[in-house]
Amino acid sequence: MNHDVTPEKGTSEGTIDPPNKYTVSPPQDSASCEGCPYPSVGFICWSPEGSCMKTEVEKISSRSKGR
User: Fold this and answer.
1) Cβ–Cβ under 8 Å, residues 17 and 10
2) pLDDT value at 9 more than 70
3) pLDDT at 66 (0 to 100)
4) What's the Rg (C-alpha) of the chain?
5) Long-range interactions of 51-56: CB distance < 8 A, separation 24+
6) 2-11, 30-39, 46-55, 56-65: least confidently modelled range
7) 21 or 10: which carries more pLDDT confidence?
8) Which residue, 52, 18, 59, is CA-closest to 37?
9) What gap in Å lies between CA 27 and CA 48, rounded to an integer?
10) Is the pTM of this model over 0.90?
């Protein structure tokens, strides 16, 4: 049995570039962001079309209360 251990060469030799950075334009209606808990979570909560997670959750919540 061969017990010689030799390190394998890595697949990414050389320099490693930093990851690409992507930007998203700010929300169209920033007034609706007042008191919104979602940006502090660390993800983008609005879409380029103008909707945002806060208003979408409020719509869903109001539909479920009407049952």
Assistant:
1) no
2) no
3) 66
4) 24
5) 52/27
6) 2-11
7) 21
8) 52
9) 7
10) no
